[in-house]
């Protein structure tokens, strides 16, 4: 067990700590902290997030949207702050990846095909066994969102989501039909192969 743990640690120390960029509203310019680095922040402009660094080792202050000397900025690093062990932490509204904390250092890891992260297990599990649900309504640009767009429920081959503003409404394809992620609609099961790990309910 110790040997396996040691190999795991060796395999991840070479990876860089990263954060998932924020989802930008294309109608406004905004600034967002990098939760893995007090010195960095994201600028959202025309719907694109760009990672930037404060000059002179200053920290980014999200409340004032500016860089200042560290003693003036109450910076919280991120999900691994204060951690002293090896643990997996969910990324809000993302099921296909998670944050691996090695001490206070954060690493992004991606679940294998057919699996989703489940916070109850602290690991990636078969998609049909995961309780994780992504809300696509929170990541859709409100300026271009269409209420008729259908999104998949990642753990299921029959369920899909429509957005009521920011709220997801889960629906199920009728009869034997399954939800195709290719055409974003319910189709005959003979014409579509469900993703591995998904349930048929």
UniProtKB/TrEMBL annotation:
Checking Pfam families in the record gives: CBM_14
Q: What SMART domains is this protein classified in?
A: ChtBD2
Domain Chitin-binding type-2: residue ranges: 21-77, 80-132, 134-196
**Cellular component terms, GO, for this chain's entry?**
extracellular region
Q: Which domain of life is it from?
A: Eukaryota
Keywords from the named record: Chitin-binding, Disulfide bond, Glycoprotein, Repeat, Signal
Q: What InterPro entries does its record include?
A: Chitin-bd_dom, Chitin-bd_dom_sf, Chitin_bind-dev_reg
- Example GO molecular function: chitin binding
Identification of the protein by name? Chitin-binding type-2 domain-containing protein
The organism encoding this protein is Anopheles arabiensis (Mosquito)
């Amino acid at each position: 067990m110790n040997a396996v743990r040691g190999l795991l640690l060796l395999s991840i120390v070479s990876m860089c700590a990263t954060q998932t960029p924020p989802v930008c509203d294309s109608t406004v310019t905004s600034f967002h902290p990098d939760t893995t680095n007090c010195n960095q922040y994201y600028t959202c402009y025309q719907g694109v997030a760009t990672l930037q660094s404060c000059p002179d080792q200053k920290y980014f202050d999200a409340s004032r949207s500016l860089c200042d000397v560290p003693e003036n900025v109450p910076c919280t690093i991120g999900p691994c702050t204060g951690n002293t062990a090896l643990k997996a932490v969910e990324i809000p509204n993302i099921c296909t990846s998670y944050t691996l904390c090695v001490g206070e250092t954060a690493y992004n890891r991606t679940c294998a095909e057919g699996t989703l992260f489940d916070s109850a297990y602290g690991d990636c599990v078969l998609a049909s066994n995961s309780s994780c649900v992504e809300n696509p309504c929170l990541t859709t640009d409100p300026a271009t969102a269409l209420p008729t767009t259908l999104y998949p429920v990642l753990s299921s081959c029959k369920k899909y989501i429509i957005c009521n503003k920011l709220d997801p409404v889960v629906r199920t394809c009728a009869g034997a039909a399954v939800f195709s992620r290719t055409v974003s609609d319910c189709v005959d099961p003979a014409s579509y192969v469900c993703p591995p790990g998904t349930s048929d309910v």
